[in-house]
Amino acid sequence: MLSRKVMVTDGPMGPSAQLEGQDDAAFRGPQNRFPATAKNNLDLLSITKPDLVLTAHRALLKAGADIIRTNTRNGDGLCQAFYGTEDATYELNKAAATLAKQAVTEAAGAASSPKFVAGVIGPSTGSLSSPKTKTTWDQMVNGYRPQVRGLVEGGAHLLLLDMVSDTSNAKAAVYAIQEYFELNPKARLPLLINVSLKADGRTPSGQSLAACVVSLLHAQPLAFGIGGDAAPSSLPQLAKSSCWIQWTGAAPSESINIFTPSGSKPKDIQDAVAQMEKASPRALPSEISSTLQLSNLDAVTPAEGLKLIGQRCHVQGSHRFKGLVHACKYTSDDDEIWEAAIQLAIQQAEDHADLLDLNFDSPNVDAAEAMGKFVRRCSLHPKLAHVPLVISSGSWKVIAEGLKNTQGKCIVNGLSVASSEEEFLRAAAECRRFGAAVIILALPRHEGGYPNYQEKVQSCQRAYQLLRSKLDFPAEDIIFDCLLTPVGSEVPASVKDFIDAVGEVKRSCPGVSFTAGVSNLSHGARTAAMLREALASAFLQHAVPKGLNFAFVELGHLPRLDS
C-alpha cells in the first residue's frame, strides 16, 4: 500500500490526547487495584477505563487515520515503575493492542482501505547516553521485554519505535524486539522507527540523522521517520534509504510514504487526510548499494579509502595504556588515571585515527567494568565522540559491556570459526542483535602457528558461508583478518600469502571488507623505526589495491601511501 498512497497515522500522542482530565479513581481501577501513585498514568486506562480508550480510537479512525497507535507511549517497565505499576506492564500493553485492534475491526466494514494497529514503544524514561544516567542497558531491555510481548500477543499489526531521542535506548528496544521474534519467528511484525530531531538536525543524544540511521539499520525497519523540531530539509538525507519514509509535522513538499500530523485531535487527522489525498508517495530506490557503514555521533563509510585504526588503547599493544589501566586497581579515586588513558585516545584522534581499538584483556583488571567505563568516557568526550570504536576481547562478557555503552555502530574484533561453529554463530548472532559489524580471524583448525594461503582462504570462506546461510548476516558487516605474518619469522606463511588471500576471498565472498595488524609485520624490528615505517608503507601499497580497507596502525608513525 505504501507504494500506492501516502498513509496517515493518528497524531504523536495517539489516543491519549483525548484521555486527559480523569480523576484519581479512573487510574486506580475497581476496588483500588492500583496504588495512588498511578494517578495520571494514561497508559493504565486501557485496563481501568477500556471504553474511554476504545472511544478515542474510534474517533481517530472515523477522522480517516490509516494507522492508529496503541495507548502505550509510556508502557515499558521502567516508565510504569515510576507509577508503581510495573507488574501490570504486560497486561496493559496487551489490553491496549486488543482495544486498538477491536476499533480497527469495527471500522473495516465502512473503510475504503485497510486500517492498521501500530504497537507503540516509547523512548522510556531517562537516557542511556546521558552522563548522569543511573539506568543500565540490562534494565532498559528488561523494561521493554514485557511491552513487546504484550503488544504482539494483543494483536498489533506492526510495532512503532516512537519518539526516539536517544539511540542507545532505541537499540535496547530493538534488542528486546529481535529477541522476542527469534523465540517466536512466526509472530514477526514489521517495525517503524520514528526519530525526534532537534533544529540542528541531530538527535537529543547528539547523533546526526545519518549516524542514527546507521546505528538502527540492523532492525530492518519497514519505515524510518523523522519528527521533533526537524525541518523538511532533513528528508533528502533519507532519499537513498532502502525503507519507506515517515514524516511528523506540517505537510512537506518532498515525497513521503507515511504522514503523521503534529496534532493528535480528530480534526488534525481530518486535515492531514485532506492534505495527503492527492500526494504522490515516494518510490523506493531502484538500486540500493550495500556497503559497510559505521557510526558514533557521525556516520562513517569505510569503503571510501583506507581507514586507520588506532591501536594504543590496547593493554597488549601499549605499555603506557596497560600501566594506566592496571593502576586503577590500586586507587579508589581513579578519575585522574582514566583521564590520562583518555588522553592517549585523544592523541590518536588528533593523529587522524578513523577508528579506535579498545582492549582490556588482562588478569589484573575487571575487563568488563573497565571496557564499559572507558567506552562511556569516549562517548562523552567531544574529541572522541565522533570516532567509531572497535571492541576487542576474547571474552563475550567484555564485548557486550562495550556494546551496551555506545549508541554508535561498532566493530567487534576477535571472532573465529576455528574452534566451535556453534559458539561462533552464537557470538555472531549477538553481535547482529547489537547492530555491530565483526572482524573474523582466519585461524586454522590446528592449534599454533600462522595459517598458510590455503588455510586463510578456507577459514574465511567457511565463516562467510555459515554467517550468510545460518544467520543471513549482512556481507557488508563482515570483515576478515587474514593474519599478517611477521617479516623474517620462521613460519611457512608469508606476507604474499596474506595479500593473495585477500584477493581470493574478495573474489569468492562478495561484499566483505579486510583488515590487517600492520604492526605485526615488523614485530622483530621494534627498535628500527624507519624500517618499521618503510615496511608498513610498502605493504599497504600492495595490499590496499587487493581489497584491504582497514589497518591497525601506530598513528603518527606511518608515511603516506604515495610517499
How do the strands and helices of this protein lay out in sequence?
Elements: E1 7-8, H1 24-28, H2 45-48, H3 50-62, E2 67-69, H4 77-83, H5 89-108, E3 116-121, H6 137-153, E4 158-164, H7 167-183, E5 191-197, H8 209-216, E6 223-228, E7 244-248, E8 258-260, H9 266-276, E9 294-295, E10 299-300, E11 307-314, H10 319-327, H11 335-350, E12 355-359, H12 367-380, E13 389-392, H13 396-404, E14 411-415, H14 421-434, E15 437-441, H15 453-470, E16 478-481, H16 495-508, E17 513-517, H17 529-543, E18 550-553
Parallel strand pairs: 1-8, 2-3, 3-4, 4-5, 5-6, 6-7, 7-8, 11-12, 11-18, 12-13, 13-14, 14-15, 15-16, 16-17, 17-18
Antiparallel strand pairs: 9-10
Descriptive keywords:
563 residues; alpha/beta
Walk me through this protein's architecture.
Helices cover 37% and strands 15% of the residues. The strands form three sheets. Strands 1-8-7-6-5-4-3-2 form an eight-stranded parallel sheet. Helix 13 links the parallel strand 13 (389-392) and strand 14. It is elongated, with a radius of gyration of 26 Å. It contains 17 helices and 18 strands. 50% of the residues are buried.
Structural class label: alpha/beta
What is the tally of beta strands?
A: 18
Indicate the low-confidence ranges by residue numbers.
Answer: none
* Biggest sheet architecture: 8 strands, parallel
Indicate the proportion of strand residues: 5-15%
**Radius of gyration computed on alpha carbons:** 26 Å
Distance between the termini: 56 Å
User: Helix content range of the residues, please?
Assistant: 25-40%
Q: In which order are the strands of the major sheet placed?
A: 1-8-7-6-5-4-3-2
Task: Tell the overall outline.
Answer: elongated
How many H/I helical runs? Answer: 17
Task: State mean pLDDT (0 to 100 scale).
Answer: 92
